[in-house]
Fold this sequence. Notes:
By secondary structure, the protein is an alpha+beta fold.
Amino acid sequence: MPTVVQVSPRLAAEFKSVRLRALQDTPAAFGSTYAKESRLSDSEWLERVATWSGSGSVCYLAMEDGAACGIIACYLDKNNAARAYVASMWVAPSHRRTGLGSTLMNTVERWAEKIGADELRLMVTSRNAAALRFYERCGFTLTGVTGPYPNDPAIYEREMAKALGAGPQAPGAR
């Protein structure tokens, strides 16, 4: 089973590799594109490592045999520190349905609870039924909020939320 580690400058190459693989594997699942991110310089990837695992944010890689096979990031809402957003969730096809996705999600949930968040939110595209089912199995529910997907006007994003810590809470309730 892969191990989950927090992204650091030492893992910048693996971070870049897994992020680009994710963008190629499921291009309509992310707010960015392979074409855009493949042009980033090594120094820009190092800056991204610092940002994604800096104050109020975290990024984890699933590593097996020295290579990344999964990724997940999470960041606090700048206007509501009790809310955190899951981003960049991806598991390599070779590791799907092994429990790795749940392990990554549980790791982010523990991080969010530790820093005081009581709710996780995320966006899932309308064409990603497998991700929607996965997030539902993880306890997320649709909030009813939708928005345009930035890379394709034929696709929209759907927001999902999950209460953390003290127990069930309606999405958006405070």
